[in-house]
Give the backbone structure.
Amino acid sequence: MEIYVAKRGDNVEEISRNFGVGVAEIAYVNQLPFPYKLAVGQALLIPTNTTDGEAKKTVTARGYAYPFISEWVLEQTLPYLTELAVFSYGFTTTGDLVPPALDDAWMIELAEENGVMAILTLTPLDEEGRFNNYLITSLLSNQEAQQNLTDQVLETLRARNFSGVDVDFEYIPPENRVSYAQFVADLREAVAPEGYSVSVDLAPKVSEDQPGLLYEGKDYGLLGGAADNVLLMTYEWGYTYGPPMAVAPLNKVREVVEYAITEIPVEKINLGIPNYGYDWSLPYIRGESKAVTIGNVEAVQLAVTHGAEILFDEVAMSPYFYYYEDGLTHEVWFEDVRSMREKFKLVTEYNLNGVGYWQVMQLYRANWLLLADTFYIMNT
């Protein structure tokens, strides 16, 4: 596949003739609504019959999804996944497992039909469905609660036909750094004899002693040894309450990978990839501004609607644009096939195990086709 960046005056019909690819196919791949208007600077994925003959690397591909995902979106996405991580199971202070508010059985069944492994995602969600980081401290200081939670996780893996568990705890207190890694190791020891895997999600560190509550409790070396594999959460530099910037700037992502490979075997490392962007109203005011989460396809259509030119930051390797509405200037950062291609190059360059998408609630077809064109996806 090739990537073409639309210039002023371009139209899909002309691009179709130049590449010898049907208009309908270009529109389908890039999710272009009729009458197929383009934004200047829009990156299009063009399916061609050419090949460079290079051998593809085999990778795993995980996608996180809530049980309220559209069945159609999930059906469209599963052919490109190795694992579907169901988000999310929580727990109580006594270690009782709390299932999602909505039934996830249909997701697990659909994943199995597509040869995709379903993964139970474990987070500190309380019985009201709210994130409660006190649960982490409580659990890690209570061996009885840990054993109860481990027993219930194992029982649920068996009963619901999961293939493994993903531990996604954030804001680990520094004093729980070792006990957290030990919990992951103990969980793995309990479930591994029955063939279940354990993965752990890691905040994006660039050094062992990086300060901050997100980082101090996450010991890359200990957790990399405790789990079967890890997900580097290499996104959220640009985030809801922060200043406008790329969600996953490539230069920052590379720094995390370069540190991670000094602590964790490369064959255990999965690169986190965001499937979303943010729309900020300007001026940005710290403590007051709040960005709106936006899908990648939605972002492009927003640029088309407002006649905005999509720019590309050559350091962050990410697209962005400005538009004006109701007297306000907006700044939008998102992902396109160019930024995805650069992240895929990192996976190959460092020989990482694969990729993990937060999240797959919205379909981004061009990304999945590019992923499949770049790698062989390891399925069961």
